[in-house]
Each structure stands twice: as C-alpha cells, then as structure tokens.
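Reminder to self: tokens first, then the designed residues, so the page reads top to bottom the way the pipeline ran.
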C-alpha cells in the first residue's frame, strides 16, 4: 500500500508550491520531502509503505552549500577564503534555515508523527532546517538547479548582506591568537564553564584564559560561538577589537 493518495494530498500542498513559485511534476517527491521520520515510522508500524525526508535532507545540504558557495565566489571577489567560509557557514546554519522555513510557513505543511505533533515539532528549528534542505533536494531532482536558485537565493542573499553589515564574519579566535603570539611563551586557552537551557536550545558560556588569567567571557548557542565571543571580549580588553 502506498502512503500517499495524490488526489487527496495535492490540495494540501498547493499553498506551499505557490510560495516556492514552483509546481512539482512528481508530487511524491514533494510529499517525501515533507515527511518526518516520526511520521514514516508510525506508518511502517501499520505496514504502510513510507519514506522519510532524511536522505533528501542529506542531498539538499550539498545542493544548498554549492548554491551559496557559487553565489559568494561570483559576487564577492574581494572576500578571502576564510571569510567566504564563515559567511557560507552562517547562511546555511540551522538558525538561518529555520528562519527561512518559517517565512514560507513550512511547518504547517509537514507530515509528523503523533509525538512530534504534541511536542510542537512544527516550530522546532532543527526539524524545520532539515525539512528545508529536503525540500531543496526534491526541487533539484524534479526540476534541476535553476528552480532551486530562484527560490533560495533571495533568502540567502539577504542573510549574507545582514551578516556582512553586522561584521559577523570576523574570526576573533584567530585574531586573538595572532595578538598573543607576539609575546613568546604566552599560553591561550578556552574553558567551557557553564551550560544552561533545554537540550534543543542550549546556551554555552566560555572563558578565555591567558597564562591562567581570565581575559574574556562569552556565551552562545554553540561552544564555538561562545569561544568567539570570549575572544572578542578579550580583544576589546587589549584595545584590538
């Protein structure tokens, strides 16, 4: 038995196709992209054939990275490799992708299992980001790279502009390391001192130490972000930021 009745479900995703400005030739691809593993697993337990969006998500991640990389390489010829990498990382990260997904109300079109449904899965950033990537892969398989670019680049280009305006592409850890290396024998290290918040919204707090003395503190949604912010505060202390 197939999971999808095309006639019944096509009307449910028509609004999404309008937001994508793309109509799928193969509706099964679209439905697969919208199917979370919790939904597929529930159907499999009832002997209903089903595929989730995880493989599409894997493929979509690469398609998105290539699309953003090509755009950055072509439109920002003066940005060095290190900063290109940071801008791309900020554009394709979970936070950015979940924001893009919310702008097209992707959550309301997803097929979720009962557990995800009752725990507000339609608003979970990681779930939305994964589904967004799966959707890009489905578009690529169905219609090639051009529909993907047409859809995703307006989101990506705006995110890139905002990142560059905010100056979020600086690598404060590398800057601090270079500053510290001016004095031989100095030892710079970072220590995670605190973790707070639920598992899906963790906040990390890090301290930067120079020769066992605290020179900066920072917090963030990842260890890396908290270390960068600690390094930024340390650079400010030395008048370098």
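Designed residues (241 positions):
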């Amino acid at each position: 038995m197939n999971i999808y009745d095309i006639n019944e479900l096509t009307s449910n995703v028509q609004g999404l196709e309008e937001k994508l400005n793309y109509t799928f030739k193969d509706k099964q691809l679209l439905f697969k992209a919208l199917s979370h593993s919790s939904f597929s697993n529930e159907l499999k337990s009832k002997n209903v054939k089903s595929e989730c969006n995880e493989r599409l998500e894997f493929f979509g991640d690469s398609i998105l990275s290539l699309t953003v990389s090509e755009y950055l390489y072509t439109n920002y010829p003066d940005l060095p490799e290190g900063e290109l990498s940071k801008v791309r990382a900020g554009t394709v990260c979970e936070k950015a992708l979940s924001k893009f997904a919310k702008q097209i109300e992707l959550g309301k079109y997803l097929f979720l299992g009962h557990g995800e449904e009752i725990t507000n899965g339609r608003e979970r950033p990681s779930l939305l980001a994964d589904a967004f990537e799966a959707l890009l892969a489905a578009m690529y398989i169905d219609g090639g790279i051009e529909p993907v670019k047409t859809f995703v680049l307006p989101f990506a280009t705006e995110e890139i502009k905002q990142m560059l305006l905010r100056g979020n592409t600086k690598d404060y850890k590398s800057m601090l390391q270079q500053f510290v290396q001016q004095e031989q024998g100095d030892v710079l290290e970072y220590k995670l001192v605190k973790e707070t918040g639920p598992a899906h919204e963790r906040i990390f707090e890090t301290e930067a130490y120079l020769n066992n003395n605290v020179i900066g503190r920072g917090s963030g949604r990842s260890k890396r972000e908290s270390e960068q912010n600690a390094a930024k505060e340390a650079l400010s202390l030395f008048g370098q930021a």
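The CA atoms of residues 190 and 226 lie 10 Å apart.
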